[in-house]
Amino acid sequence: MTPHQETSALFTRRQFFGRSALGLGTAALASLLGRDALAASGPAARRFGGLPALPHFAPKAKRVIYLYQNGAPSHVDLFDYKPKLRELHGVQIPDSVVGGKRFSTMTGNQTARPVLAEITKFARHGKSGAWVSDFLPRIAAVADDLCFVKSMHTEAVNHAPAITFFLTGSEMAGRPSMGAWLSYGLGSETEDLPAFVVMTSRDKEESCGQIFYDFYWGSGFLPTKYQGVAFRGKGDPVLYLSNPDGLSRSVRRGLLDDLAQLNEMKRQDFGDPEIATRVAQYEMAYRMQTSVPELTDFSKESAATLAMYGSDVRRQGTYAYNCLMARRLAERGVRFIQVMHAGWDQHRNLNSQLKIQCQDTDAPSAALVKDLKQRGLLDDTLVIWGGEFGRTPFLQGKIEDTKQWGRDHHPYAFTLWMAGAGVKPGFSYGASDEFGFNAVEDKVHVHDFQATVLHLLGIDHERLTYKFQGRNYRLTDVHGQVVRGILA
Questions:
Q1: 62-236+303-486: which CATH number, 2.120.10.90, 3.10.450.50, 2.40.50.140, 3.40.720.10?
Q2: CB atoms near residue 86 (< 10 Å)
């Protein structure tokens, strides 16, 4: 719906309310009857919100869990095995490979760029023979469920613009995030939880200075009701869910009903869709008073399930806790779950911190895939694991100073993996050159990745648009091709 159409609809409703003797009561009754009819049609037909024309075609995925690894995991140490790096360890990387490429200021003026061999050991795993580092044994064990994309590339060389590019389609803040687009287009399968939930965590040592900016899950120019709801890492996941002392649930219900009527009057007067957002958020908060305590109660999870996610699973705010929460959110109908974990920015501590980071994230990531599969949810849930770029195949620092070995930001080739609905399991797509420096085979750009995610959800990325400031915008801007080679 364009802003003009939305305004027209608001004015039509205002005229209806002004002329109707029953007014708000009639509208409320219609809403309740519609909700009952929707519930009667069965779980498969349940959808709250979204555009009537979507999905454009039958989707493979109903929901997405995006395990976003802030800071950029080193592809050449984890997934993209390159024997050439060990062969030429310590030797200046050829100028013909670097080719005047742009890097961050940390190595932009560094003249010595010695090749740095992988600091891990690689082996093939599963029937697919996927190369995975020994730092990730649990992910290696589920390699036959994963689709590795080894030819990702991007333009951004710094973290915030690169993360923003992946999540919003633009390096500049202000565009709707992927989850906001999906909330707007597809709505939710539940009305008791938000359509778009975000959870963040960071490495225990706090070695990484990455900041979680709100615009990573913002709604941009879409109405704010489509922005992600960020669950907190301590205390109540969402503030103000508990009633103040002396205020019962029934009294709060009455207050919300009265407030909704007042807000509706203002909406009729001004035609501002943000007033409708405010009413919707009050109602969501009221329903979450019941749904969130049940969501966060792990007492019915089996001991085997909890053990699979790792020792940190009961500690709120950890990556393990958030991964189990992601599964619980998915089975309760949340459309887009964004789990962001910072700690992969190893400029001067590659030899120490990379292993620790892998230990924190390996088991929970693999457990999520296994858990979804065991419950039959992987068939219609798309899981994505990856960061904003890779790390350089050459060394940042001095070759003799092993304690401060590091790798700089590298946008020209890196790896992410996907699992679940609609992607080929046990498959590796694309390739980088012998140094892991440039994507050379079946290259996948960020906009191609975004177009593919939307395609798996039944959306033609060129047709999901929103008119703003005279232009029809979309997640993929004016670019993007569906990567059909990874589709099952």
A1: 3.40.720.10
A2: 12
Q: Please tell me the predicted confidence (pLDDT) of residue 43.
A: 41
In degrees rounded to 5, what are phi and psi of residue 391?
-125, 150
Residue 283 has pLDDT above 90, yes or no: no
Listing DSSP states for 278-327 in one string gives HHHHHHHHHHHHHHHHHHT--TTS-HHHHHHH-TTTTSTTSHHHHHHHHH
Query: Looking at the predicted structure, is the pLDDT value of residue 94 above 60?
Result: yes
CA distance 36 to 26: 15
Q: How far apart are CA 103 and CA 332, in angstroms?
A: 43
Dig out the tokens for 327 from the structure: 């599964």
Alpha-carbon distance 128 to 124, whole Å? 8
| Residue 468 backbone phi and psi in degrees, to 5 | -145, 130
Interstrand relation of 431-432 and 439-441 (parallel, antiparallel or unpaired)? antiparallel
Ramachandran angles phi, psi of 196, nearest 5°:
-135, 115
Which residues 6+ apart lie within 8 Å of 301 measured at CB? 324
pTM exceeds 0.85: yes
